[in-house]
Write a structure and sequence with these properties.
Layout: E1 2-4, E2 7-10, E3 15-17, E4 23-25, H1 26-54, E5 55-56, E6 59-60, E7 68-71, H2 85-100, E8 104-106, E9 112-125, E10 136-149, E11 157-168, H3 173-198
Parallel strand pairs: 7-8, 7-9
Antiparallel strand pairs: 1-2, 2-3, 3-4, 5-6, 9-10, 10-11
Length: 200
């Protein structure tokens, strides 16, 4: 038997006596340490899961209280009408929230509500060449958005989003508008997403 400070050790039998007088075998000591490590790992996992519930692919959302978003169709009320723009914009916005969040996408009645309309689809002159003729044309889309946060009403807002693309004036709009609109829809959808759930 070897005496130490505050404990006695039986070297041959791997028995230890702590300061309270409790006798522990080597196996008991290892088991106690394993339980302590397991508890620590469990706490870390719980904290990690809480963090994920708030942030997922850039979204700053508390999924414990916010479960769904309703995204209405965005009608095209612009003076010049692109017949596919309304559907492409509406689906582009829904697709972004579907891919980047765990929110259920609804047509109406969500914890978050997103609605709006296309109010502008215009062509204007862009850069002027040396001979005073426009060498570029600019296509612009303007969308008004009404966002309602039914969980945190103070975060609700109304805002107009604008995106534009330029193209060679020698080309017809019908030849380029599909690609230009796809780029602008992506930009507008991402800006709406950032303002509503990413809070960048």
């Amino acid at each position: 038997m070897v005496k130490g400070e505050g404990r006695r050790v039986n070297v041959m039998g791997y028995k230890y006596q702590n300061q309270t007088g409790e006798t522990l075998t080597r196996e008991n000591r290892i088991g106690t340490r394993c339980r302590a490590y397991a508890t620590l790992i469990g706490i870390i996992c719980i904290l990690s899961s809480c963090a994920v519930s708030f942030k997922f692919n850039g979204a700053n959302i508390n999924y414990q209280t916010t479960h769904s978003i309703s995204i209405a169709d965005f009608p095209n009320n612009a003076a010049m009408v692109n017949p596919t723009l309304s559907n492409n914009l509406s689906e582009g916005i829904r697709d972004l929230y579907q891919r980047q969040t765990r929110l259920e996408i609804l047509q109406r009645g969500g914890d978050l509500e997103l609605e709006g309309e296309i109010v502008g689809y215009d062509i204007s002159q862009g850069a002027i060449s040396a001979d005073s003729y426009a060498s570029e044309s600019k296509l612009t889309i303007r969308v008004t958005v009404h966002f309602t946060n039914n969980i945190h009403p103070e975060e609700s807002f109304d805002k107009t989003y604008t995106a534009y693309q330029t193209f060679d004036s020698n080309r017809l709009l019908t030849d380029v508008q599909d690609d230009l609109c796809a780029t602008m829809i992506t930009e507008i959808a991402e800006n709406i997403y950032n303002d509503t759930v990413a809070k960048w």
